[in-house]
Amino acid sequence: MNEAILVPIEMAVTWRYASGAAMERFCSGLMERRIEALRCGVCRRSYLPPRPICGNCHAPLSEWVSVADEGRLEAWTVLQVPMLDARTGDMREAPYGMGLIQLDGADTTINHYLAESDPARLSIGLRVRAVWRPEPRGAMDDIVHFEVLR
Ligand SMILES: [Zn+2]
After folding, report:
1. Which helix (DSSP H) or strand (DSSP E) does residue 39 occupy?
2. How many CB atoms lie within 10 A of CB 3?
3. Do residues 121 and 69 lie in contact, with contact meaning Cβ atoms separated by under 8 Å?
4. 101: CA distance to ligand 1 center in Å?
5. What is the pTM of this model?
6. For residue 8, is it within any domain?
7. Count of structural domains, the chain
8. Ligand 1 centroid vs 39 CA: distance in angstroms?
9. Are 82 and 93 in contact (CB under 8 A)?
10. I need a labelling partner for 86 at 20 to 30 A (CA). Which of 13, 14, 15, 46 fits?
């Protein structure tokens, strides 16, 4: 059996990410604590995060609609292992909750952190609300996490 060869390499990498026209408007709205979805003019499905083409009927999307920063928890999990947060580059200590959240006015879900990490206190159908960072900067982490409304 061959032994694995390990070659440690350290790289300093910086980059800029082009979000696209739909995400640019979406992120601009976040700076004002406004969440916008794109609605299909044909089948009326509202997409959040916004996307340029309808997944149902393939029509181009251009009708922006505001959605609430509250919604319904459609799925959830509690992670038990610390993970690198791809949004910030920081380690996120475990446990922490993740959810698929359908905001009021949207027909799709967004994936985001949950303030609650106790599985006994989480269930599908719970109402949740965005907790905003004090000074939004136009990124998805302007929403720190979603808190459960009791
Ligand atoms: Zn459509």
Report:
1. strand 35-39
2. 5
3. no
4. 21
5. 0.85
6. no
7. 1
8. 8
9. yes
10. 46
In angstroms, the CA 16 to CA 8 distance is 26
Beta-carbon neighbours within 5 Å of ion ligand 1 = 40, 42-43, 54, 56-57, 59
Per residue in 34-89, pLDDT tens? 999 999 999 999 999 999 999 999 999 999 999 999 999 999 999 999 988 877 78
Q: Is residue 139 part of a domain?
A: yes
Contacts (Cβ under 8 Å, ≥6 apart) of 135: none
* CA 64 to ligand 1 center in whole angstroms: 14
Q: 5-37: per-residue pLDDT in tens? A: 888 888 788 877 778 889 999 999 999 999 999
- Answer whether residue 49 is part of any domain: yes
Range of the domain at 44: 21-148
Measure the CA–CA gap between 38 and 36, rounded to whole angstroms. 7
